[in-house]
Amino acid sequence: MKLDSLKKNIVIKAQDKEQLKTLYSNWIKYVKENKTDEASENIDKIFTILEPYYQELYPPLTFEEYMADMNVDLTKEELAKLKTLYEEAQKAEKDKDDELSMKKWDQFYEILRPHFKPVPFEEYMADIEFSISNADYAKLKQHYEEAVALEQKGEDEKAGEQWEAFYKILDPYYEANREILISPSKLTFNGQDFTPEPETN
Fold first, then answer.
1. What is the pTM of this model?
2. Which residues, in sequence order, are CB contacts of 25 under 8 Å at separation 6+?
3. By CB neighbour count within 10 A (0-12 exposed, 13-18 middle, 19+ buried), where does 143 fall?
4. What was the pLDDT predicted at 190?
Protein backbone atom coordinates (compact mmCIF):
# COMPACT_ATOMS: atom_id res chain seq x y z
CA MET A 1 0.00 0.00 0.00
CA LYS A 2 1.41 3.36 -1.01
CA LEU A 3 -0.37 6.64 -0.49
CA ASP A 4 1.80 9.25 -2.15
CA SER A 5 -0.89 11.59 -3.39
CA LEU A 6 -0.24 13.96 -0.49
CA LYS A 7 2.36 16.24 -2.03
CA LYS A 8 4.93 18.53 -0.48
CA ASN A 9 2.62 21.55 -0.38
CA ILE A 10 0.41 19.74 2.15
CA VAL A 11 1.77 19.54 5.68
CA ILE A 12 0.50 16.67 7.79
CA LYS A 13 0.22 17.46 11.48
CA ALA A 14 2.68 15.63 13.70
CA GLN A 15 -0.13 14.08 15.72
CA ASP A 16 -1.76 12.76 12.53
CA LYS A 17 1.55 11.32 11.36
CA GLU A 18 1.95 9.36 14.57
CA GLN A 19 -1.60 8.06 14.39
CA LEU A 20 -1.16 7.05 10.75
CA LYS A 21 2.08 5.26 11.54
CA THR A 22 0.47 3.29 14.38
CA LEU A 23 -2.68 2.48 12.41
CA TYR A 24 -0.64 1.29 9.43
CA SER A 25 1.49 -1.00 11.57
CA ASN A 26 -1.65 -2.38 13.20
CA TRP A 27 -3.22 -2.93 9.79
CA ILE A 28 -0.22 -5.00 8.66
CA LYS A 29 -0.40 -7.03 11.86
CA TYR A 30 -4.14 -7.75 11.58
CA VAL A 31 -3.93 -8.65 7.89
CA LYS A 32 -1.19 -11.17 8.61
CA GLU A 33 -3.27 -12.60 11.46
CA ASN A 34 -6.32 -12.78 9.15
CA LYS A 35 -8.32 -10.52 11.49
CA THR A 36 -10.47 -8.95 8.81
CA ASP A 37 -12.68 -6.77 11.01
CA GLU A 38 -9.76 -5.26 12.91
CA ALA A 39 -7.82 -4.68 9.68
CA SER A 40 -10.82 -2.94 8.09
CA GLU A 41 -11.30 -0.78 11.16
CA ASN A 42 -7.70 0.42 11.01
CA ILE A 43 -7.74 1.15 7.29
CA ASP A 44 -11.01 3.08 7.73
CA LYS A 45 -9.38 5.20 10.43
CA ILE A 46 -6.41 5.88 8.15
CA PHE A 47 -8.67 7.25 5.41
CA THR A 48 -10.69 9.24 7.92
CA ILE A 49 -7.51 11.05 8.98
CA LEU A 50 -6.42 11.51 5.37
CA GLU A 51 -9.77 12.79 4.07
CA PRO A 52 -9.29 16.50 4.98
CA TYR A 53 -5.83 16.49 3.37
CA TYR A 54 -7.20 14.81 0.26
CA GLN A 55 -10.02 17.35 0.04
CA GLU A 56 -7.50 20.18 0.29
CA LEU A 57 -5.43 18.70 -2.52
CA TYR A 58 -8.31 17.63 -4.71
CA PRO A 59 -11.40 19.81 -4.33
CA PRO A 60 -14.58 18.38 -5.87
CA LEU A 61 -14.63 18.36 -9.66
CA THR A 62 -17.14 20.37 -11.60
CA PHE A 63 -19.62 18.33 -13.63
CA GLU A 64 -17.76 19.20 -16.84
CA GLU A 65 -14.45 18.07 -15.34
CA TYR A 66 -16.00 14.84 -14.05
CA MET A 67 -17.42 14.00 -17.46
CA ALA A 68 -14.35 15.03 -19.47
CA ASP A 69 -12.81 11.53 -19.68
CA MET A 70 -16.06 9.66 -20.28
CA ASN A 71 -16.21 8.56 -23.87
CA VAL A 72 -19.99 8.39 -24.18
CA ASP A 73 -22.51 9.94 -26.55
CA LEU A 74 -25.25 11.72 -24.64
CA THR A 75 -28.21 13.81 -25.66
CA LYS A 76 -28.63 17.37 -24.39
CA GLU A 77 -31.50 16.15 -22.21
CA GLU A 78 -29.35 13.41 -20.66
CA LEU A 79 -26.52 15.86 -20.01
CA ALA A 80 -28.88 18.29 -18.30
CA LYS A 81 -30.30 15.55 -16.07
CA LEU A 82 -26.83 14.25 -15.26
CA LYS A 83 -25.59 17.71 -14.31
CA THR A 84 -28.53 18.25 -11.95
CA LEU A 85 -28.06 14.84 -10.33
CA TYR A 86 -24.29 15.35 -10.04
CA GLU A 87 -24.69 18.69 -8.27
CA GLU A 88 -27.37 17.25 -5.97
CA ALA A 89 -25.13 14.28 -5.14
CA GLN A 90 -22.21 16.60 -4.37
CA LYS A 91 -24.38 18.74 -2.10
CA ALA A 92 -25.67 15.64 -0.28
CA GLU A 93 -22.09 14.45 0.26
CA LYS A 94 -21.12 17.86 1.62
CA ASP A 95 -24.14 17.75 3.95
CA LYS A 96 -23.10 14.22 5.07
CA ASP A 97 -26.43 12.83 3.84
CA ASP A 98 -25.17 9.44 2.68
CA GLU A 99 -28.60 8.04 1.87
CA LEU A 100 -29.53 10.93 -0.41
CA SER A 101 -26.08 10.97 -1.99
CA MET A 102 -26.30 7.26 -2.80
CA LYS A 103 -29.79 7.74 -4.26
CA LYS A 104 -28.58 10.57 -6.52
CA TRP A 105 -25.51 8.60 -7.67
CA ASP A 106 -27.72 5.61 -8.43
CA GLN A 107 -29.93 7.82 -10.59
CA PHE A 108 -26.85 9.37 -12.20
CA TYR A 109 -25.38 6.02 -13.25
CA GLU A 110 -28.79 4.68 -14.25
CA ILE A 111 -28.70 7.25 -17.06
CA LEU A 112 -25.05 6.53 -17.92
CA ARG A 113 -25.21 2.73 -17.68
CA PRO A 114 -26.58 2.00 -21.17
CA HIS A 115 -23.77 4.06 -22.70
CA PHE A 116 -20.90 2.16 -21.04
CA LYS A 117 -19.08 -0.57 -22.90
CA PRO A 118 -18.26 -3.45 -20.52
CA VAL A 119 -14.62 -4.34 -19.95
CA PRO A 120 -13.85 -7.75 -21.55
CA PHE A 121 -13.35 -10.55 -19.03
CA GLU A 122 -9.73 -11.10 -20.10
CA GLU A 123 -8.95 -7.42 -19.52
CA TYR A 124 -10.70 -7.49 -16.14
CA MET A 125 -8.53 -10.44 -15.08
CA ALA A 126 -5.29 -9.09 -16.56
CA ASP A 127 -3.84 -7.91 -13.23
CA ILE A 128 -4.33 -11.23 -11.43
CA GLU A 129 -0.89 -12.32 -10.24
CA PHE A 130 -1.58 -15.99 -9.62
CA SER A 131 -2.61 -19.03 -11.65
CA ILE A 132 -6.23 -20.14 -11.87
CA SER A 133 -7.28 -23.60 -13.02
CA ASN A 134 -8.83 -23.83 -16.47
CA ALA A 135 -12.11 -25.09 -15.02
CA ASP A 136 -12.40 -22.23 -12.54
CA TYR A 137 -11.32 -19.71 -15.17
CA ALA A 138 -14.17 -20.86 -17.42
CA LYS A 139 -16.68 -20.58 -14.54
CA LEU A 140 -15.38 -17.13 -13.63
CA LYS A 141 -15.80 -15.96 -17.21
CA GLN A 142 -19.38 -17.23 -17.30
CA HIS A 143 -20.33 -15.51 -14.03
CA TYR A 144 -18.56 -12.29 -15.09
CA GLU A 145 -20.30 -12.07 -18.45
CA GLU A 146 -23.70 -12.85 -16.94
CA ALA A 147 -23.17 -10.24 -14.20
CA VAL A 148 -22.17 -7.58 -16.73
CA ALA A 149 -25.13 -8.40 -19.00
CA LEU A 150 -27.54 -8.17 -16.06
CA GLU A 151 -26.05 -4.86 -14.94
CA GLN A 152 -26.53 -3.49 -18.44
CA LYS A 153 -30.22 -4.38 -18.14
CA GLY A 154 -30.44 -2.73 -14.72
CA GLU A 155 -31.06 -6.07 -12.97
CA ASP A 156 -28.67 -5.31 -10.12
CA GLU A 157 -30.00 -7.92 -7.69
CA LYS A 158 -29.49 -10.77 -10.15
CA ALA A 159 -26.13 -9.31 -11.14
CA GLY A 160 -25.17 -9.31 -7.46
CA GLU A 161 -25.86 -13.03 -7.28
CA GLN A 162 -23.49 -13.59 -10.20
CA TRP A 163 -20.80 -11.45 -8.58
CA GLU A 164 -21.22 -13.41 -5.35
CA ALA A 165 -20.71 -16.67 -7.26
CA PHE A 166 -17.75 -15.09 -9.08
CA TYR A 167 -15.92 -14.16 -5.87
CA LYS A 168 -16.84 -17.43 -4.17
CA ILE A 169 -14.58 -19.04 -6.78
CA LEU A 170 -11.92 -16.32 -6.80
CA ASP A 171 -11.57 -15.57 -3.08
CA PRO A 172 -9.89 -18.90 -2.18
CA TYR A 173 -7.16 -18.06 -4.69
CA TYR A 174 -6.58 -14.73 -2.99
CA GLU A 175 -6.47 -16.49 0.37
CA ALA A 176 -3.99 -19.11 -0.87
CA ASN A 177 -1.75 -16.36 -2.26
CA ARG A 178 -2.08 -13.99 0.69
CA GLU A 179 1.65 -13.82 1.42
CA ILE A 180 2.43 -12.88 -2.18
CA LEU A 181 -0.33 -10.30 -2.47
CA ILE A 182 -0.03 -8.69 0.95
CA SER A 183 3.55 -7.60 1.36
CA PRO A 184 3.40 -3.85 2.02
CA SER A 185 6.72 -2.54 3.20
CA LYS A 186 6.16 1.17 3.56
CA LEU A 187 3.65 3.97 3.60
CA THR A 188 4.67 7.27 2.03
CA PHE A 189 3.23 10.57 3.24
CA ASN A 190 4.43 14.03 2.38
CA GLY A 191 7.65 12.68 0.88
CA GLN A 192 8.49 10.71 4.02
CA ASP A 193 8.49 6.89 4.22
CA PHE A 194 7.03 5.04 7.19
CA THR A 195 7.76 1.35 7.70
CA PRO A 196 5.97 -1.02 10.09
CA GLU A 197 7.66 -1.64 13.39
CA PRO A 198 9.70 -4.86 13.38
CA GLU A 199 8.01 -7.76 15.10
CA THR A 200 9.42 -8.75 18.46
CA ASN A 201 9.08 -12.05 20.22
1. 0.47
2. 196, 197
3. buried
4. 46
